[in-house]
User: Fold these one by one.
Assistant:
Number 1:
Amino acid sequence: MTANATALPLEDLKTACNGPANSANSLACIKLSRTLLKANRVFLALSYAHKGAKSGNPDAMFIAAKIYVTRWKELGITYQEGLKYSQALAKESCEKGSGEGCSLYAYNLPADDTKNKVKNWKLGCERKSAVGCFFLANYQDRIENLSKACEYSESDSTLGSNFCLDYAEALEKDPKSTKTRIQEAFDKACTLGYRYGCYKAASLREEQRSPETELLLQ
């Protein structure tokens, strides 16, 4: 089985995930876990994430970590228990190379542990975690890190639309920014589903119309 395994029917993915713990089969476990989570099959989703993690797959560890800390109520455990399990998995996921793991670990560290939060958000951002870059922007190189948060956002990410909108608004406040660059950021927010981004991008286009263009449109 190859990386293309994630395109296989669910029964084939289940067979692969229940097979030997290796990097190829862990991809099937990840796909199953994400699919089951969307269907609110939380226990099964967590089970398959754990199976994927057995091969050392950091992405599977991240998924399990996120389930523990966000779906603890459905798992029948306390928030503190969920947080404890989540942080252990997120830390291991980060150590094995997952940017999302680093970002989740940083997010759930105590509020006053700024040093380790920034350290792990930076690691997450370096590994192309949009969340890591977004939070890192609160501490250093705001525009640059917001730009990365926007760039690394997934194409269907509601969270990403917020990142891109924040980036565009930060550019608006920067006197060095060009209208073209600002417009591109609002366009990305629009593409990711933020309607205000669409409105702002359209307004900027309107402002940039040349007199010649206006005559042609009349």
Number 2:
Amino acid sequence: MTNKTTETTLTGGTIEYEDFSCEIGVLGPMLYTLCQDHWQEVQIGHVVQGSVLELSFLEPPKIFVLYDGYLTVATEAWHLHLCVEEHLGGPHCKTPPELRKQRLVTRGALYRRLNRQGKPTSWGIQFWNGDGEKMMTFFLPNPYLGEDEDLLPEGKPQWKKLGLYETLREIYVLGNQPIPFPENPLKRPYLAVCRSSRCNPSRNWQPTYDALKAATEEAGLDIPVQTAGCLEVCQQGPVVFYSGDRSWYVQAKPELAKRIVNEHIIAETPISEYLYPQNSNQ
């Protein structure tokens, strides 16, 4: 049985919500599907009385990564952050517990907006945080709109546009289909090199990045290597982050970069003298 609620609007219409689980095992595959597999079909934004924001993808996002609880999705023109796991607050876990709860996505629902005659007019996904505030909205394809967002002729909707909504509903609301990923795409391990000048004034991160790339390729590891903004260490750069077990390394020059791959990742033996903070229990 689905958790279905209805909200009456001031214009006489209604919004029907069907909730789904906000566990990371659900949110990860769903958000990947929306932003990576169906980026051409969705829009992302925020809706409050008196203001609507709608952003479109012109190409697949160049960044789609989970760091310290926040999913970052970035295009050439804009980026977003969505807290889908507890935001601990970097290597020192400095985010207060009450703020972690407030920021986290705690409710998600597929919705349909209906006019006062009970006719559905739009479809999407709504998220709420721990305080019950509406977060961002994903706008799903609308069968009444053409390619340029113009209204189609009366009586000629393109019902096939509801395919994405119906598929998501079957998987994440009704549970009639399995989640279509063997593993959570948001939890795949990766390595990141900080490119910020705050911890590495020379900004000479490229040799470390190249060494990580070469070491992972030589070892045949399917672990992406990428650059990142501030990794919340802000000293002793270059800084390397390994998402597989949430480890930060400082003074990560090319020689150490190779050791991180061979000793920490492959041999599962962290290099304690370069871990940050030093009391990390790896």
Number 3:
Amino acid sequence: MLVAPALGRTTWVANQGYEGPIIFKANPGDTSCPGQFYLWGDRYTNGGGYQAACHDNIEAPTWNAKPLTMTNAGVVRPRHGTVIPLTLREWNDIRKIPNSDVTTTTKVAVEPYASGAQTTTATATVKAADGFETGGQVRFSIGSWSKTAYLKDGAATVTLPTGLPAGAQTLKAEYLGVDYLKASEGTRRSRCPPARPPSRSRRRPRRRRLSAGTHSS
């Protein structure tokens, strides 16, 4: 958050009033303020409308004013707006430019079984080729067992249950894809422990009690 007294008046016209400032970083390839920050402010006096400035130091006490030409539904000086980020796909949609589906990669990791443990966890990490976030579901499977989990921050985790076939097994993680993200899969070899033999309880034989004053011959 930028805190500076009368920044609008030190940057634009000194005797005017400004409100609703917003600061944002210039996009890569910007030619008006390359590698700098933009400052927009709404001049509410004398029909000024939006004013623009830029600077490479976000804490500068005075910014470099820039001419700004903007129209909104025929209004020459629009007011009370904001700046919102757009992804390239969203910008292409606005311009009616088709977007290609994005490929993904899925990597699997299995936590080693602790000594004597019958269960452990497996995690699938899904990354998109365009570097943006991923979402959706991943299906894990070993043999006839399978379980589906949702991605959170690009990763999905499940607990491998007891009763899986003992020995070296291949765990498959299938990212099912969503919207424009293509499906992908990964595998990991893991050694599952043998099942524990069922425990047997040994019951002591009950001793027959003899009543007082009696005896057996």
